[in-house]
């Protein structure tokens, strides 16, 4: 709203120091980030006090994890702090007419409502299972299809094509040089590492040509969008099991996505780095700045020992935002690397379940590969894994979180480095 106010005043002929600053994405991104931190710090304190007053606390089961029982009664549903901080900052400093901002705000509200419903069932109805996995999966798939179909149908979501540049002497074409074509078009291209132009078109997966090929390539692309958003949302949800783990790793991912959105939405930077130019995605950088600021402010209270847990209200929202942002800036194929922590956490659960069911059917007794899944609890639990027979001692929770953060930073740097590897 402040952005639109300054824009109106400037168009009306007002001239005072600083009125043109709102034109700059970098300035608005900094304001959004700082505002989100401030809101999280001050609103968070009041929200935590209210949650304590209403005795909205975490119910903890005895799982044999170090320090687990001490968490009992800690306020939960703290994801409200994150959502509030993001939305207020975005409403103040983003261009609300931008289609990408609108989709991210919608995704935040959708995932936030889904997560809150799950926490409500757990806390107020005392049902530890919460909303069924099937219901949550259906809701995430609906969100994925809504985003995918919008990307397909909206005339505001386009990319700028690159064409070979004429050589300096005007004869022929330069072999490697490319310039941006004046026209924009809708296509199913995305970013992929290790190839010359860093681009991959989903149409190569279509078995048809012509009109049917056009529909098929978009169907494949929309399906990929659904998979990415669902996977990111669930991956973050599984990672949320230690103080500061999900918030810290998600903040690292958010920084990288914000940088990629800013670079991809800037014509000069896109051309210099030879990456896909997507007009309008610079506003996503402001949204992600607010996202990171909200997580940092939340970490003030969520770091070990946590004063509040985000609950599914926060974890599902965070994962949804990450997934939607990735597909909007066409970086979804980089997610297995950038979100490597979330991927490994999800795989550990799938592997554990598969192996347990397989061995139970074969031997009559289920066996486990990890001491406990998701993976972060494997390091927290004392004992001997069934497959790896060497004893593995429990590691302090704060150290596990710090090490996961370090791995997350390494994956983030590797993801950014892929921009120059072709």
Structural summary, described in words:
This protein is mainly α. The chain has a domain at 26-158 and 206-340. It is built from 14 helices and 4 strands. The longest helix has 30 residues, at 210-239. The radius of gyration is 23 Å and the shape is globular.
User: What is the global morphology?
Assistant: globular
Order of helix and strand elements from N to C terminus: HHHHHEEEEHHHHHHHHH
Strand content: 5-15%
- DSSP strand count: 4
Task: Classify the secondary structure makeup into a structural class.
Answer: mainly alpha
Q: What distance lies between the first and last C-alpha atoms, to the nearest angstrom? A: 41 Å
- The number of helical segments is 14
| Residues in helix, % | 55-70%
Major β-sheet strand ordering: 1-2
Question: Please, what is the average pLDDT?
Answer: 87
Flag low-confidence runs: 167-177
Main sheet: strands, sense, barrel: 2 strands, antiparallel
Which value, in Å, is the CA radius of gyration? 23 Å
Blueprint of the fold:
Blueprint: H1 2-11, H2 25-53, H3 79-93, H4 99-123, H5 133-153, E1 159-166, E2 173-185, E3 189-191, E4 199-201, H6 210-239, H7 245-264, H8 267-273, H9 282-302, H10 311-328, H11 335-338, H12 340-363, H13 375-380, H14 397-417
Antiparallel strand pairs: 1-2, 3-4
Helix pairs in contact: 2-3, 2-9, 3-4, 3-9, 3-10, 4-5, 4-10, 5-6, 6-10, 6-12, 7-9, 7-10, 7-14
Keywords for this structure?
422 residues; mainly alpha; two-stranded antiparallel sheet; 4 strands
Summarize this entry quickly.
With 422 residues, the chain is mainly alpha-helical. The chain contains 14 helices and 4 strands. The protein has a two-stranded antiparallel ribbon with strand order 1-2. A two-stranded antiparallel sheet has the order 3-4.
